[in-house]
Amino acid sequence: MYKFLRNILFCLPAEASHDFALHAMKIGDGLGVSSLFAANLAGKGQAKKVMGIHFPHVVGLAAGLDKNADYVDALSSMGFGFIEVGTLTPRPQSGNPKPRMFRLKSEQAIINRLGFNNKGIDHACENTARLRKRGVLGINIGKNFDTPAEQANQDYIHCLQRAYQLADYITVNISSPNTPGLRALQFGDEFTILLDELKQEQARLQERHKIYTPIAIKLAPDMSEEQISDCCQNLLSRDFDGVIATNTTLDRSLVASNPLAEESGGLSGAPLSVKSCEVLQCIKAEVGEKLPIISVGGIMSAEHAQQRLSAGADLLQIYTGFIYHGPALIEQILIGIDT
């Protein structure tokens, strides 16, 4: 049934079908018909504790599908073990000009240059506070596009403060290719200062609210081994709670023959699979068992999922795979992996 619906949705422009599908899921959830499309997970998947959080199983939804926590209840009905919303910024912003999302169907890929389009952290927090189906929830935070680089940390701290009591974990997105200058925050003094300020604020919030909300850092796939090593050592030395690898890639080598390959933005889906797994392996070699890893990027099958777990991932996230294969992918992964 999902394949039939996907073929209809793929007749629409990518972003329009994205919005339509989410609205349809929300209506279906309200009418109680989500079970027609949800993954059949009875007896499948095992619970796992990561970052001090109990996950019902290892397959989650990556940030980007539900930017504003408008559809968490509906998405929870699809069978995800956890859901990450965002990326969210302090102030609402419209993102980059349209069109800004493109399907590369033959490669099972998507290029997007959305640019953190979202309704702002306050809107998402209001939605999160009134969720009906409260599963494990991550909140992904970023900076506004017009915030000067020297003030970027203030945006992250503001979002951390707002989301701290509502999220099960918080993801710091410094790796999107669609906000100018954002990826520079992964390196050098900018990176270490941001990490220090995040940990200091986390400690203050823990003292104030008497709860500990883990923070994970999301990294790009387009880094050298030396850069990955530096990032990992900085995360370890500051006792961060997790790392998410990876965001979308700027590499077009595997889609060069596609007419859409020249569109700017981050590439996700099947062409990212090998690169994302290689970054995962590099990170695992650096951190061992000291830092939990959530693997995302190009997980399109149970085989891909098993490769990530074998390479050291603790949890998995899907996004483009969900677009192309629907909720059945969750079930296929949980049946096909060794747990």
In short:
The protein is α/β, with parallel strands linked by helices. It is built from 11 helices and 13 strands. It has one domain: Alpha-Beta Barrel (TIM Barrel).
Which secondary structure elements does this structure contain, and how are they paired or packed?
Layout: H1 2-9, H2 14-31, E1 48-50, E2 53-55, E3 59-61, H3 72-76, E4 82-88, E5 101-104, E6 109-112, H4 121-129, E7 136-141, H5 152-163, E8 169-173, H6 188-209, E9 215-219, H7 225-237, E10 242-245, E11 266-269, H8 273-287, E12 293-296, H9 302-310, E13 315-318, H10 320-325, H11 328-336
Parallel strand pairs: 3-4, 3-13, 4-7, 7-8, 8-9, 9-10, 10-12, 12-13
Antiparallel strand pairs: 1-2, 5-6, 6-11
Helix pairs in contact: 5-6, 7-8, 9-11
Features:
339 residues; alpha/beta; TIM Barrel; eight-stranded parallel beta barrel; three-stranded antiparallel sheet; 11 helices; 13 strands; 37% helix; globular
Number of DSSP strands? 13
Note the beta-strand portion: 15-25%
Number of helical regions:
11
Low-confidence stretches: none
Compressed to H and E, one letter per element, the order equals HHEEEHEEEHEHEHEHEEHEHEHH
CATH architecture: Alpha-Beta Barrel
Q: Looking at this structure, what is the CATH superfamily?
A: Aldolase class I
Helix content, binned percent: 25-40%
CATH class: Alpha Beta
Overall shape: it is globular
Sheet with the most strands: spatial strand order? 3-4-7-8-9-10-12-13
Ends distance: 29 Å
